[in-house]
Amino acid sequence: MWSRSNRPHRRLGWAVRIADAGGENIMGTAENKDLVRRVYEEVVNNHNVDLLSSYFSPDYVNHKNPGGLEATKQLFLMLFEAFPDVRVSVESIGAEGDRVWVRITMRGTQLGPYMGVPPTGKTFEATTVNEVRIENGMLAEEWGVTDTLAMMLQLGLA
Q1: Binning pLDDT at 50, 70 and 90, where does residue 26 land?
Q2: Could you tell me the pLDDT band of residue 158, with boundaries at 50, 70 and 90?
Q3: How far is the C-alpha of 83 from the C-alpha of 107, rounded, in Å?
Q4: Long-range pairs for 88-93 at CB < 8 Å and ≥24 separation?
Q5: pLDDT band at 111 (very low <50, low <70, confident <90, very high)
Q6: CA distance 24 to 73
Q7: Which of 8, 26, 78, 133 lies 20 to 30 Å from 65, alpha-carbon distance?
Q8: In what helix (H) or strand (E) does residue 102 lie, and over which residues does it extend?
Q9: Could you tell me the sign of the dihedral formed by the alpha carbons of 22, 40, 33, 145, in that order?
Q10: What is the band of 8 on the pLDDT scale with cuts at 50, 70, 90?
């Protein structure tokens, strides 16, 4: 028989605060999801790379774009130049512990050079699925897959 005192937190549906190895409180799952949503809105949709250091750990590791925070900044700058109207929509998001999984749709029009190709004026819509690890309230590590082939086909680049 489950009682309030012995029921696993998952069964209660509460945003659970958990402790790291040092015993400090870290963000709960609701806060972690909100953090990831804010990154997409404030950094990507508002084209504000100056906020990267507010959201990303100095030791941030991106397994799909190696090179740390500086490489991520350069990737965003290239994206914003090639697709000045680029926008991201969060389609679904989930979290457990220090991990957040998010499926996004990115849309934009190629109005600048992209991967050595002059502007095409064509639009694209591509899906990305990311897993993000949160540490001390910041994005610390990221894995992901983007449907790059669909994007390239829509832009006439493949």
Answers
A1: low
A2: confident
A3: 9
A4: 88/40, 88/44, 88/45, 90/36, 90/37, 90/40, 91/127, 93/33, 93/36, 93/37
A5: very high
A6: 30
A7: 26
A8: strand 99-109
A9: negative
A10: very low
Is residue 129 within 8 Å of residue 107, measured between CB atoms?
no
Reported as type and span, the H/E element at residue 123 is strand 123-135
16: number of Cβ within 10 Å? 14
Cα 129–Cα 131–Cα 135 angle in degrees, nearest 5? 150
Both structure tokens of 12: 């209660």
Dist CA 139 CA 117 (whole Å): 32
User: From CA 121, how far away is CA 38, in angstroms rounded?
Assistant: 29
Residue range 30-34: average pLDDT? 95
Give the chain's domains with CATH numbers.
14-155 (3.10.450.50)
Model confidence at 97: pLDDT above 60: yes
Tokens 């209660």 label which residue?
Answer: 12
How far is C-alpha 145 from the chain's CA centre?
11
CA atoms lying within 13 Å on the CB side of residue 59:
5
Which tokens is 39 given?
Answer: 């990154």
